[in-house]
Amino acid sequence: MREALFVKQGKEKWKGYEDLKNTGPDELAESFIQITDDLAYAKTFYPKSNTTKYLNGLASTFHQSIYKNKKEKTNRFVTFWSYELPLVFYKQRRALLYSFLFFMVFSLMGALSAKYDNTFVRLIMGDQYVNMTNANIAKGDPFGVYKQSNPFLMFVGIAANNIMVELMIFVMGIFFSVGSIYQLLKNGVMLGAFQYYFFSKGFGLQSILVIWCHGTLEISAIILAGGAGLAMGNGFLFPKTYSRFESLKKGAKDGLKIAIGLIPVFLTAAFFEGFITRKTDMPIWISIAILTGSFLFISWYVIIYPRHLNRKLNHNK
Fold first, then answer.
1. For the chain, what are the domain ranges?
2. Which of 64, 105, 239, 300 shows a CA-CA span of 20 to 30 A to 129?
3. Counting Cβ atoms within 10 Å, is residue 173 exposed (0-12), middle (13-18) or buried (19+)?
């Protein structure tokens, strides 16, 4: 093929390649492949022509743009925590609210059941745990259970267990949201019975100062995991203008982001439980500081910051 005909055939295409401003990553990659094919052809048949120099410069521009985009992807970890996850929290705020309300009602059910049925705590917590705690209370150390294991092994075991529980709560949402609600029921009733047990023994305030050092983050994460499951299940139940399958995919994607985002929260809660909660004689101000800091972090990151970020992004549009 003569060079003039080659240029005539590719001129319009190459001209379009010069504007990369609105080019997405997939289109960019496809265009780069085509331009390198044309460059290879030109180098073979017109090695010293201006056409080859032009295509070489165009290919270099594409290469730099692709490299820049790849470099930006290294910040994905930062953007996930700074933007993606908070915006998912805002988008799924109703699912998170419903999860919170369900959990509170189930916890109240557990506490009331424990109050009016003397056998309920043993039914929920198990005879072994109740007998051990009664023995610890008799020895003057009601929270001695947190001191029995090696701190690091306790941290690893609790972290693994809690993450498995979280994933179970999320995945069960595929069963029309009912599965996640059932998991919230189990955990909520258990918490209610557990907390009432210590109040009935006269250790209510002390249990809050000790147990909720890790419990604030742990229970908050369980509620958020329930919201992740509801986001997935509700996507199928209430597709709105989308097809049911497409809506399910969107809900599952949002729920998965929440589930992944909760892992550091569970790890932190497990660290507190393994290394901090065992120090039952720590000064009250330290317990209050941990409790307050955990509560403020969850409130800010899940409620306040997502709302602020959404308002800011919409304002800038």
1. 3-73, 88-316
2. 105
3. buried
Give ∠ CA 246-250-255 in degrees, rounded to 5: 145
Tokens encoding 114: 């424990």
Residue with tokens 């589930």: 259
The string of DSSP codes covering the chain is: --HHHHHHHHHHHHHHHT--TT--HHHHHHHHHHHHHHHHHHHHH-TTSHHHHHHHHHHHHHHHHHHHHHHHHTTHHHHIIIIIHHHHHHHTHHHHHHHHHHHHHHHHHHHHHHHH-TTHHHHHH-HHHHHHHHHHHHTT-TTGGGGSS-HHHHHHHHHHHHHHHHHHHHHGGGTTTHHHHHHHHHHHHHHHHHHHHHHHTT-HHHHHHHHHHHHHHHHHHHHHHHHHHHHHHHHHH--TTS-HHHHHHHHHHHHHHHHHHTHHHHHHHHHIIIIITT-TTS-HHHHHHHHHHHHHHHHIIIIIHHHHHHHHHHHH-
pTM: 0.77
